[in-house]
Amino acid sequence: MIVVTTFAELRQARAKLPGPVGFVPTMGYLHAGHISLVEHARRDCAGVVVSIFVNPTQFGPNEDLASYPRDLPRDLSLLEAAGVDLVWTPTPESMYPPGFQTWVEVAGLTTPLEGAQRPGHFRGVTTVVAKLFNAVGPEKAYFGQKDAQQAAVLRRMTCDLDFPIEIVVCPIMREPDGLAMSSRNTYLDPQQRQAATVLYRALSAARAAYDQGQRDAGALRRIVRETIGSEPLAKLQYVSCADFDTLEELDRIEGRALLSMAVYVGKTRLIDNFVLE
Ligand code: AMP
Fold first, then answer.
1. Span 223-252, pLDDT tens digits
2. Atom of ligand 1 nearest to the CA of 171
3. Do the Cβ atoms of 59 and 198 come closer than 8 Å?
4. Distance 172 CA to ligand 1 centre (A)
5. In this predicted structure, what is the pLDDT of residue 179?
6. Does any ligand 1 atom lie closer than 6 A to the CB of residue 90?
7. Which end of the chain is more exposed for a tag (fewer CB within 10 A), N or C?
8. From atom 11 of ligand 1, which residue's Cα is the shortest distance away?
9. Which of 3.10.580.10, 3.40.50.2000, 3.40.50.300, 3.30.1300.10 would CATH assign to domain 183-271?
10. CA–CA gap between residue 177 and residue 34 (Å, rounded)
11. Residues with active-site annotation
12. Dihedral pair phi/psi, residue 87, rounded to 5°
């Protein structure tokens, strides 16, 4: 496994990889969710590239950029064990040198949900992913359904800007008690970690109602709200039951729907979702 930092080193190493090349962008502090993306890429592609970059432009001023967990040696040994060919760890200074003033922005899909709660977040995500795509030039790129809106926004960007890249979205990896794996779970103390299982319980309760024929989106949102409300350490920021493709809120579920939410457990903001189909 080759580990590079600069754009020049990346281009040189990338040129030597066999194709097709699969690319997994990450912010590091890797867990089994990230590794599942690598494994998908490893199965599909002859060359696998992973980037580790805590992208400052996707964090809001009051978010956790400074405290975001980092452990590069551990990440590298996990990636080596997973059979990655090339790891790119660019620096913020090289990504955003003095004078940087070009942004990539997707319009409508970024308005609701995470976009409404985190102004500027998706502009940071689409800008950095466009730069990563340009530098790596993969045939396929792998993202997690955990960040459902991000996947939808990046699919839109890839299509609208004619990147010749196939976007592959992989299922959410969960802890045995249902909590979606996330680098941010490390912020939770033992009591909060226990409380955080309420996200999965809320989604499961809503899906049970859906499975029994409930198609009223308001009723499903209410089940989530009530279940989260039953956990004193959890505070619901939003719950959404939206069209899977447009992310517009639904009254009734007719096609594929995305049931999603953001919840604070202490100061830690957690997101999760189920696809209803
Ligand atoms: P991050 O390092 O948080 O930016 O995540 C990098 C990629 O891993 C994104 O495409 C995420 O959607 C994906 N990812 C994060 N958590 C999970 C998970 N629990 N299961 C599957 N994919 C995940």
1. 999 999 999 999 999 999 999 999 999 999
2. 21
3. no
4. 8
5. 98
6. no
7. C
8. 144
9. 3.30.1300.10
10. 19
11. 34
12. -115, 130
